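Below sits our specimen:

——
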Amino acid sequence: QVQLVESGGGLVQPGGSLRLSCAASGRFDSINSWAWYRQAPGKERELVTISSFGSTNYAETVKGRFTISRDNAKNTVYLQMNALKPEDTAFYYCRVEVRRVVNVEGATTTRQYWGKGTLVTVST
């Protein structure tokens, strides 16, 4: 099992900044990818950004304002959010895809895990 602990959400004024973090712990051998999703009230969950095998992609709505980064030594991912807008208000969820070696022949499995979410509110 893998546990994800998110932190950093809160209330911020429009134009402000927040940094979210998400730390993974448990049984895995490596991390294939990290992603951040968000879900606003009454809306579907949407992908914000994903970092996978050296490539990074962002939703058009956050490009240039949000930055994903990862500390591989700490198994932690960050989401730096700048120039926040009221429409960025949502629960933010991190997702990790991990890889585990399952036998002596080196066979592996991959699995995704989700954090419980942290609320970001952008308001005056």
